Amino acid sequence: MAKVALRLNELINSATLRDELSTLADKHRPASLDARNAALALLKQQRKAGLRIAEDMLRQDGGGRACARRLSHVMDEIVRALYGFAATHVYPADNPSTAERIAVIAVGGYGRDTLAPGSDIDLLFLLPYKRTPWSEQVVEYMLYMLWDMGLKVGHATRNIDECIRLAVTDMTIRTSLLESRFLCGDKALNLDMAQRFDREIMADTGAEFAQAKLAERDLRHARVGESRYLVEPDVKDGKGGLRDLHTLFWIGKYFYRVRSGAELVGKGVFTQGEYRLFLKSEDFLWAVRCHMHFLTGKAQERLHFDIQPDIAKRLGYLRHPGLSAVERFMKHYFLIAKDVGDLTRIFCAGLEEEQAKQVRTRPGARRPASPSPGRRRLAGTGDFIIDNHRLNVIDQKVFERDPVNLLRLFWYGDQHGLEFHPNALKLVTRSLSLVDKSLRRNPEVNRLFLDILTSSRCAELNLRRMNEAGLLGRLIPDFGKIVAMMQFNMYHHYTVDEHLIRCIGVLAEIESGAGQKAHPLSHSLMPGLKKSRNALYVAVLLHDIAKGRPEDHSIAGAKIARRICPQLGLSGADTEIVAWLIHNHLLMSMTAQTRDLNDRKTIEDFAAAVQSVERLKLLLVLTVCDIRGVGPGVWNGWKGQLLRTLYYETELLLTGGFSELPRSQRLQEAQENLLARLFDWPEAERLAYVNLHHANYLLTVDLADQLRHADFVRKTDAGGHKLGTMARIHEFEAVTELTVLAPDQPRLLSLVAGACAAAGANIVDAQIFTSADGRALDTILISREFELEEDEYRRTQRISKLIEDALSGRNRLPEVIARRSKAKRQARAFHITPRAELRNTLSHRFSVIEVKGLDRPGLLAEITGALSDLSLDIASAHITTFGEKVVDTFYVTDLNGQKIEDRNRITAITKQLVDVLKGTGL
C-alpha cells in the first residue's frame, strides 16, 4: 500500500495560533470574559478549518489512517495552544512550586494519535502530588473551553500514585495508560509515570492482560452482533471492525513489549505480508469511519443502509454488471472484516504459542516428558494432534507434504467433535496457494468435503471455519465469488456466503429434530428423503451461489450446479435434482405468500411446475431453510402455515386425491355441512344464515371458522350493532386474526388497512366476503406483536376502535397514519421501480393484480382505496413485505363479478396503481 503524505503543516499553523492567543491576552485582560470569548471563537475557527482541510485531503488521497492522524494533529495543536494560554496568560504561576506542575496527556484512541471527526477527546491531567488551586484552575479552564467548543471530552485528573493504583484493578484505565501520549506541560512527569507503569504494572502481567482484552472483545461482539457479516455493520465495535484491530495492537504492545505494530513481524507473530494486510485493513476502516462522521456530522459508527450509497460514492466505487456501486463497496468492507478475522486468528495462535513457550522455559519449571502438556497424536493419523482438546497440526509442513490434509483437518474435526487450534487455522490461511485445479478435482477431497457438508454433527460450524480460513472459496471458486457479497436491501440480514452457511445449520436442525416444534412437517419428511439427502444438502449450500451476476441467479445457479455436482461425486439423477431445486428455489415461497391458496388454479399451476411428490418434499425443506437463513425475525408461523397448506393441497393433486367434484356439488355439500352443525339454531334462522353467504365464502372458509363466524354474526345482531369485530390469536402461526363485520362499502378494506397502519400493525393476509344482506365479513391477519395474550388482545381493541372511528367519520385516517406512523429511516436509501400487472391466467374466476414497490406507512390503504375507486371488488388480498419492498397480490372482479378483460381498462388500472406506488396517485 502506497504511503499517504500527512501534510500536517497544511492543517493548522500552530505558531500563528499561539501568537494570536498572545495578542488576545495583550488586548484584553486574560482572565476576562472578553478574552475567553475571543479565544473560544479563534479555537473553534481553527478546528473547523482543520477539519474541512482534512476532509478535502481524505477525498483526494483516500488515506483513512492519514486522515485520523491529521485530525489528531489538529486537536494536539488546539490543546497545546489552549494549555499555553491558560497556564501562561490566564493563570500565570510566577514562582511555581514543585506541586504546581501538570502534564497534559492524550489517552485512549487519542493517545494512539488517531481521531475520527466525532471521536471523544480523552485527556489525562497528570499531577505530581495532590491538587493545588493553580492546577484546578488550569484544568477547569481547559475543560470548559473544550466543552464550549462542542467537543466530547473524557478526562481524569490524577497524580502518578493514583494512576498506578487504579491500573492494578481497572483494565480500562490500564489500557488507556498503555496508549498514553504526552502533549504538553511537564515532560518529566510523563516520563516518570511511563517508567513506573512499565515496571509496576506491565511486568509479568502480559497473559492476564491478553486474557482480559480477549474476554472484553467477546462481550463486545455479543453486544453489537456475533457475525461480522451483518449488512449494517458497526465499523468501530463490530466483529471485524476497528476495535478488533486495536485489541490486537493493545495485546501486542503489552504482551510482546513493543512500541509499534511493525515490531510484531520481528517477534514472529505476523509475516511481512500479514502486517501489510493489517495496515491495509486499518486504513480502509479508518477511511470509512471518517467519511461516516464527515457525512453525518456526528459520531456515527453503524454503517446504516441510508448512508451506504453516499459512502460508496465518496470512496469512488462504480457499478459493475450484476453489482451496484454500494454492493461493491460493501463486499470490499466484508472482505476487510474477514481479513481482520484472519489476522485475529493468526495473532491468537502466535500468542498462545508464545505463552506456552514462556511456561516451558520459565526458570524452575519442570520439563515435561512429552513435547507439550495436553498434546497427543490423533489416532489413525500421523499429521494431526489433539492439543489441549483442540485439533492441531503436527508441524508446519503438514499441508505442503499433502494438500489433501487441508480437507482432512476439517473432516477429523467433524468426526471427533473437536474445535480447531488457532495455529492450525492460521496455517490453513497461509497455505491456500496449494489449492489448485487438480486438488479441486481430487476424488478424496470431494468425498471429504461432501462428508463435512452432510454431517449430522456440526456441518455449519465446520463450513464457517473453512470459509473464515478462506478454504471454502478456494475449493469452490464460484462460492468464492459470493464470499462477503452483500445484497443491498432490508430483507437480507447477512452476506450471501453467511446466509448459505446458516441455511445448512437450519437444515441440520430440522433433520436432528431440534427444529421439530417450529417445522413439524419438514422434520417429518426428512426420513423419507434419505436417497436424496446429499442432493438436498448440496442444493441448500449452492442455491444462491450465482448472486451478483447479470443473469437471473436461479438460472445461472442451476448451470453452476450441473458443473459442480459431478465433481462432488453426485450421480446424474442427483445432479438434476440439485439443478431443478436451485432453478426453482423461490417458487414455493412466492406462491405461498403471494397467491390465493384456496384458488384451485394456484394449486394446479404449482403442481404442474413441481410434477412429483419427491420434488415437492425437497422444495419445501429448501424453502424453509432459505427463509430461516435470511435473518432473525424473517421466519414466522404464518409463513410456515402457508407453506404447509400449499404442500398438502399440492400433494393431494399430485397423488390423485384432489377433489374433482363439480363446483355446484361442492357448494351443496358445504351448505348442508353448515346447516347440520347449526342444529341448535331455530330452523328458519339457520336457513336464513346459510343463504346469506355466497359460494366463494362457503367453498373457501374452513367449517370450524364458519361456525365461529356464525356465532359472531349472531351476537353482533342480537346486540343491535352495525359494526362488530372479533379477534383470535394464532399462537403457532404468530399472527392475530381480526374479523370485521360491517355494512359493505367500496373502501371498507382501505379503511381497515389504514386503521392497521395507524396502529403500526403489519397485515399479512386478507379475505373479503360480502353477504346477501349487503354486509361485509372481512378476515384480516396481522403479525403478532406481543408475547402475552392479554397484551395482544388490548392491541386488537385499539385497532378495532380505530376502524370504528374511521367508519363513523370521527377520524381521518391519513392524518392519523401521518401522526402515528414513521417511515423506516433505512427506506430512504432504496429505490424500487414501481410495477403493477394484471393477469387473467392465474385464476379461473378472478383477475389477479400484483403490485411491487417501495413500502411506506399507509401504502396498503392507498392501494386498496385505489382499487375501490376503480370499481373493482377485492375477493382476497395477499400482503408480502421483503424488507423495504412490498409484493401485494389482489384477486379481483368487476362489479358484476367478471374478470377484467378490456385492454384499455387494464392499462388504466395498472397506470393508476403505479401512480399510487410512486406517491402521485389521487
TrEMBL record:
Residues in domain ACT? 737-814, 848-922
Q: What's the cofactor? A: Mg(2+)
Task: Look up keyword Hydrolase and say if it applies.
Answer: yes
PROSITE patterns linked to this entry = ACT, HD
Give the UniProt keywords, A-Z: Hydrolase, Magnesium, Multifunctional enzyme, Nucleotidyltransferase, Repeat, Transferase
Q: Which reaction does it catalyse?
A: [protein-PII]-uridylyl-L-tyrosine + H2O = [protein-PII]-L-tyrosine + UMP + H(+); [protein-PII]-L-tyrosine + UTP = [protein-PII]-uridylyl-L-tyrosine + diphosphate
UniProt cross-references to Gene3D superfamilies, sorted A to Z? 3.30.70.260, Beta Polymerase, domain 2, cca-adding enzyme, domain 2
Q: E.C. number, please?
A: 2.7.7.59, 3.1.4.-
User: How is this chain's activity regulated?
Assistant: Uridylyltransferase (UTase) activity is inhibited by glutamine, while glutamine activates uridylyl-removing (UR) activity.
- Domain of life of the organism in this record? Bacteria
Query: Which InterPro entries has this protein been placed in?
Result: ACT-like_dom_sf, ACT_dom, HD/PDEase_dom, HD_domain, NT_sf, PII_UdlTrfase/GS_AdlTrfase, Polymerase_NTP_transf_dom, UTase/UR
CDD domains according to UniProt: ACT_ACR-UUR-like_2, ACT_UUR-like_1, NT_GlnE_GlnD_like
HD domain span = 496-619
Region annotation (Uridylyltransferase) ranges: 1-379
Q: Does the record carry Transferase as a key word?
A: yes
User: What residue spans carry the region label Disordered?
Assistant: 358-380
Q: What does this protein do?
A: Modifies, by uridylylation and deuridylylation, the PII regulatory proteins (GlnB and homologs), in response to the nitrogen status of the cell that GlnD senses through the glutamine level. Under low glutamine levels, catalyzes the conversion of the PII proteins and UTP to PII-UMP and PPi, while under higher glutamine levels, GlnD hydrolyzes PII-UMP to PII and UMP (deuridylylation). Thus, controls uridylylation state and activity of the PII proteins, and plays an important role in the regulation of nitrogen metabolism.
Q: What is known of its domains?
A: Has four distinct domains: an N-terminal nucleotidyltransferase (NT) domain responsible for UTase activity, a central HD domain that encodes UR activity, and two C-terminal ACT domains that seem to have a role in glutamine sensing.
What the entry lists under PANTHER family is as follows: BIFUNCTIONAL URIDYLYLTRANSFERASE/URIDYLYL-REMOVING ENZYME (PTHR47320), BIFUNCTIONAL URIDYLYLTRANSFERASE_URIDYLYL-REMOVING ENZYME (PTHR47320:SF1)
Q: Which family does it belong to?
A: Belongs to the GlnD family.
Q: Supply the name of the protein.
A: Bifunctional uridylyltransferase/uridylyl-removing enzyme
Native species: Aquamicrobium segne
| Gene name as annotated | glnD
